[in-house]
Specification:
100 residues; 6 helices
C-alpha cells in the first residue's frame, strides 16, 4: 500500500500535465509487477480520483503483460543500438514523405 500512497500523493500531482514524467514514475514499478503488487492494488490505483483520466488508463495498461504501454515503459531506460536508431529514423522519414 505504500507504493499506492506514493503514486497518488506524489507521482500523480507532479506529472499531471506531463505524460513522459508519469511514464517514468510507472517505470519504477512496472519491473516489479507480480512481485509487490496485486491486481487489487493496481485496480485501486486505476480507480483513484486523484489521477487524471489519462493516468488511470495508462496505469491499467502498464501492468498488463504484452500491452504497448508496458513495452514502451520498459524501453524507457533501454539503451538504443545504432540499428534501432536508424530504423526509427527510416520509419519517421517514410511517414513524413507521405505527407508532402
Amino acid at each position: 500500500m505504500e507504493w499506492l500512497n506514493y503514486m497518488v500523493t506524489i507521482a500523480a500531482p507532479h506529472s499531471k500535465d506531463n505524460a513522459q514524467h508519469w511514464f517514468r514514475y510507472l517505470r519504477k514499478y512496472v519491473d516489479k509487477c507480480g512481485i509487490s503488487f496485486s491486481e487489487e492494488d493496481v485496480a485501486m490505483l486505476g480507480c483513484s480520483e486523484a489521477l487524471t483520466p489519462f493516468q488511470r488508463v495508462s496505469v491499467k495498461a502498464a501492468f498488463r503483460d504484452g500491452s504497448p504501454t508496458r513495452e514502451y515503459i520498459m524501453g524507457l531506460n533501454h539503451k538504443k543500438t545504432p540499428e534501432e536508431i536508424t530504423e526509427t529514423r527510416r520509419r519517421y522519414e517514410n511517414l513524413g514523405a507521405g505527407k508532402r
